[in-house]
Automatic annotation (TrEMBL), chain A:
Signal peptide: none annotated. PANTHER family: PYRUVATE DEHYDROGENASE E1 COMPONENT, TRANSKETOLASE-LIKE PYRIMIDINE-BINDING DOMAIN-CONTAINING PROTEIN. This is Transketolase family protein. Its cofactor is thiamine diphosphate.
UniProtKB/TrEMBL annotation, chain B:
It holds the Pfam family Transketolase_N. This is Transketolase. Belongs to the transketolase family. Residues 13-273 form the Transketolase N-terminal domain. Keywords: Thiamine pyrophosphate. The keyword Transport does not apply. Its cofactor is thiamine diphosphate. Gene3D superfamilies: 3.40.50.970. The keyword Hydrolase does not apply. InterPro entries: THDP-binding (IPR029061), Transketolase_N (IPR005474). It comes from Candidatus Mycosynbacter amalyticus.
Amino acid sequence: MSHYPLRDNLFADDVAQEPTRAGFGRGLKKAGEANERVVALCADLTESTQMHHFREAFPDRFVEIGVAEQNLVTVASGLARAGKIPFTSSYAAFSPGRNWEQIRTTAALNEQPVKIVGSHAGVSVGPDGATHQMLEDIALMRVLPHMVVVVPGDSVEAEKATQVVAENGKPSYIRLAREKTPIFSTDESPFELGKAYVLREGHDVSLLGTGTMTYQLLKAAHLLEQHGVSAEVVHVPTVKPLDEDTILASARKTGRVVTAEEAQVAAGFGGAVAELLSEKMPTPLKRIGMYDRFGESGAPNELLDYFGMTGEKMQTVIQAFINTTPQYHREG
Amino acid sequence: MTQHYTLAQLDAKANTIRKDIISMLEAAGSGHSAGPLGMADIVTALYFDIMNIDPKHPDWEERDYFFLSNGHTVPVQYAAMAEAGYFNKAELKTLRKLGSRLQGHPERTKLPGLENTSGPLGSGLSQASGVAYALQYMDKQPHRFVYTIMGDGELNEGNIWEAAMFAGKYKLSQLIGFVDRNNIQIDGSTEDVMPLEDLRGKWESFGWHVQEIDGHNIESIIDAASMARAITNKPSVIIAHTIPGKGVDFMEYDYHWHGAPPNHEQAKEALKKLRTLDGKIKAGE
C-alpha cells in the first residue's frame, strides 16, 4: 500500500479550504506551460470555471464559445483533430448535461482527447437550485467507452489531476465543485489516474469516497472511532477506470462497504462499486448520495446536511448499516 | 498533390461513383440512396480537383481537411475514396458488414482518410470550425482549407447555427461549407418538415459569404470553391442545389429513397441507367 500523506489538522475548525475548481484553474495554467498544445474553450463562464487564469496567460490559446455547449465540445473535437489538447468548461449541468451526444460521437467514439470539465457539480451549488445542481454527470460520463472520469477530492488534487489528464491522450471528464471544501491531501500526496488510495486503515467497514465526499468520510470515520468502530477510508478520485484491486482488497479485509458521492447513486460512483462487488466479490453495500430525486435551493452546508452527506449524518447511517448487516470476511 | 482532370473526366468519375454507390448499397442491403447519388458531383469535385490531398498518405501534414457532416451519405465518400486510391474498390462491398472498415456511418478510427466520426446530425460544421480555427489563429497555415458538407435537413439542428455564429464571429475564412440542398429529408420535403428559407439570408446574417450553384455542374462547383478560397474575411457556404437520387430516374426527387437501398432488380435497373446515361449512349447496354 502506497503511503498517502494527509494534512495534520484535518478536523480543526480552521482547516484550509478551497473550491476544487480553484485547483483546476491553477492546474490548467501549469498544463499550458508544460505543453503548448493545451488550449482552452469556455461557454461564457470563464471566471466561474476558473479558466481566466489560462486565458490571461495564453490569450492566443483560449477560445470563447458563448452560451453554446454543443458547439463547445464539437469545436474542441475539431481542435483535437488539428493536434491540440482542448479543455472545455461550463457548469456540469450543461456540459456534459446538454451535449452528451456530441461528446459521445465526436470525442469518445471519435477517440479525440477532448477534456470535459464540469464545474459546479452536486447539490452544494446551493441557492441556484435543482436546475444547476448536476447529479447525473458521473453516470452519463462513465458509461461512455474510452472516457476517463476523474472526481478530485480537494483543490490540491484537482490541480494535479488536471495536469495528468492533459497528458493522458484520452477523452476525459473532470468533475468540480463550486464551494470551498477542506483540503485533506498535501503536495506530496500521490495522484495517478486509475488509482485509489487508502487514507486510513480499519477493519469494521470500508468507506469509499469520491470527490469532496472523501473528506466527509474521514470525518465520519473519526466520529465512528469514538464509538468503537474501526473504519477504513479509501479515496477514489478516478471513477473510471476504477481501481478494482484496491477496492476489492479493502472489501475483502473489512467485509462491508459504504460509498459516498455528491451525485445520484444510481449508475454513479456507488453504482460502479456495486457492479464491481456484485460481479467479483458480493459484499454488503450501502450507497450514500442522492436517491432518485433532485436537489433544491438552500445554503450549501444546509443542503449537504439535509441530504445526509455530512460526516455527522454519514456516521449515523454507517453505524446503522454496521448494526444491521453481517460482515462478509474473506481472509484470516 | 492534386492531379488535374478535364471536366469530361470528372463527369465520368462522378458517374462511376454513382454506379459504385448503387452496387455497394445493394450488397449492404441497407443504407441511404438518394443523398449519396445527389452529392456525387460535389464529392467528385472535392476529391479530384478542389482538395489538396494525397490518397497514398492520408495523414499528410499539408493536406486539406474534409468533414462529412451528414454521415448517412457516406457511401458517396467511400466510393470517391476508393476511386481516388485510398483503398481497394473490392472493399466497397463490405459496407455495413461485420468487421468492415466501411461502417454504416463514418468512423474516423476505422478507416485512414476519414477525418471525423459522424451520423448524428449537426456536429460536422463545428468540428470543421475547430480545425479552421486552429489553422487560422493557432498554427498560422493560411494555405490549408477545411471543407464540410451538410445536408439541408441537417440544418434543423441547433448545433449547426451555434457553429455558424462561431465561424462568423471569428471570420474563419479557411472554412468552406457546402449545403446539399436537395429539398428532402426522411419525413418528406424540407419545406414541409421544417422550412429553411430564406436560407441564403440566414447564412448571410450570420456573417457568411454565400454562393448558390447547380450542384450537378462540376465546373460551377469548382469555380465556387475557388471563389470561396479567395474570400479572406469571412467563412463561405456554397448552397448546392441537387436532385436527390440524381442519375437514377425512379429515385430522383422521391424522398422515400432518402433512407432506402435498392434491391437486386432495382440495382440492376439503376446500373443500366447509369451505364447508358439514361439511354443517351448505347455502349454497355
